[in-house]
Amino acid sequence: MDSKEYEQLVKEYIDTIYRIAISYTKTPADADDVVQQTFLKLLTKCPKFKDKEHEKRWLIRVCINECNSLFSSFWRKNVGSIDETVQEPEFTMEEHSDLYYAIKELPAKCRIVIYLFYYEDYSSKEIAKILHINEATVRTRLTRGRKLLGTLLKEAWENE
User: Fold this and answer.
1) What is the pLDDT of residue 152?
2) Which of 16, 30, 113, 159 is within CB 3.0–4.6 Å of 25 for a Cys-Cys bond?
3) pLDDT at 36
4) CATH 1.10.1740.10: which residues of the chain?
5) Model's pTM, two decimal places?
């Protein structure tokens, strides 16, 4: 893979990979590390892709694997985290902020499925291939995620 081809892939997919990483890790610093590792793997492995969709799926899968590796590392398990000052995004509409915070509260398994389904427009069959899980598991996580979101958003509206 030449440098122009690599740069093009990075420009095309960096936002998607970052959004997935921040969804998993919940901190910008960890998300940056995951994104860096994902694109480093792309550079070092130089996989041959069949088409654009294969590129995207491969990068998403590597990103998810890197997130899982981050959380299973010795360091992460044995060292307490320092409270970081994380700058949250600013929203012009309160409904958007409620949805953002509700999605952040979902368990990681539901959060990634919700993200891939609603934001990346993947079908449950495609998500199952990307995550290496059964399609029925994807549908179950989507259902659970929607139910949890409904509960969280209802609570947010009632508290106002």
Assistant:
1) 82
2) 30
3) 95
4) 1-85
5) 0.66
Say how many CA atoms lie within 13 Å of 35 toward its Cβ: 20
Tokens of 47: 């996989």
* Spatial distance between the Cα atoms of 81 and 6, rounded to a whole number of angstroms: 34
Q: Yes or no: is domain 88-160 CATH 1.10.150.170?
A: no
| Under 8 Å between Cβ of 148 and 106 | yes
User: Which CATH code for domain 1-85?
Assistant: 1.10.1740.10
Average pLDDT of the chain, as a whole number: 83
Task: For residues 86-103, give the mean pLDDT.
Answer: 65
Whether the per-residue pLDDT at 121 is higher than 50: the answer is yes
